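Before relying on records like the one below, remember that each one covers exactly one chain. Contacts with other chains, cofactors or solvent are not represented anywhere in the record.
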Amino acid sequence: MLGKNITIIGGSGGMGQFFGRYFKRHGFNVTLLARRENKLKTAAENLGVNYELDLKKSVENADIVIVSIPIKSTSELIQKIAPLMKNNSLLFDITSLKQEIYMILREIQKKYPINCLSIHPMFGPGIKTTKNYVILVLKIGGTEQYEEIIDDLISLFRSDGFIITETTPDIHDSKIALTLGVPHMFNILFLNLLRRANDSLSELTRYTGTTFLLQKIFAESIIQREMEMFGEIQIENDKFHKVIDLFEDLIKEYKFIIKNKDLIGFKKIFTEGLEYSKEDNHFNDSYKYFYEFMKILKEKKE
C-alpha cells in the first residue's frame, strides 16, 4: 500500500510542480527539494506544500521519492539517495531516456530494501486535464510488497484517466526517438530553415495559409520549452542517431526528386506516406481536427 509522505527532488521545475499539485490533490503530504532556495520556496508556497533544503532529511522518512531532474544528473542522484531511504519505500524517476536509468535502478533494487520504478509522462506540465494522456511505465522490482505498491500507484493514475503503457528500456528509447526526437527535430529545423531564408515570421504570416500557420504555432510552442531536455533526448539516445541517418538518406532522395523534376518519383514518395498514414486511427478525422485547430486560432485572433 502506498504511504502518504512523498518527496519530489527537482520539485521547483515544471514537472516537479505538476506532480506536487497532483499528489497533494490526492491527499499526500508533499515535500519539494531543489537547488535554488528562492525558486523552491516560491514553488512550495504556490502549491501549499512543504520544502526542504537538506537531501538526507528530505528522503529518509519519505514513503515515495520522485526524481524530476535533468537526465544527465539522474543516475548519480538516485545512487546517492537510495541508501538514505527507509525500508519498503518507493523510488521512481520521470526521465525521457531509460537504458542507463533502468540498469542503475536494477542494481539499486538488489542492494537496498526499497522498491524501484521508472516512468515517463508523455505530456508537459501545462496540461489542464489528465484524461487520455499517456504515462509509460517500466517495472524494476523491490520488496515483497512491490506488486501491491506499484498496483496502487498505477490504479491512482488510471483513476484520473491516464493511459498506462508498460514497456522495456530498449523499446522505450526506440519509440521515444520517433515520437519525441523526430517532431522536436522537425520543429527546430523548421524555424531555423525559415531564419536562414532571411525572412521574418511576422512578415511570412501576412502570406500564410492554414498549413503554415499551424506549423508555425506548433514550432513556437516547442521552442519555448526546455532546451537541455530536448538536446538530451536527441543527443544521448543512440536510437535517435539511427533515425538521423534515415532522415539524411530521405532528404537526399527528396532533393534528387525535386532537383530533377521527377514527378513520378514525387508521386511514389507521396503515395508511400499516404498509404502508411492510412493505418492510423486518426487518419479519417485528421482534416476535421485540422480545421478545429484553425477555428481556435481564428477565434483567439478575433
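Strands lie at 5-9, 29-33, 50-52, 64-67, 90-93, 115-121, 134-141, 163-166.
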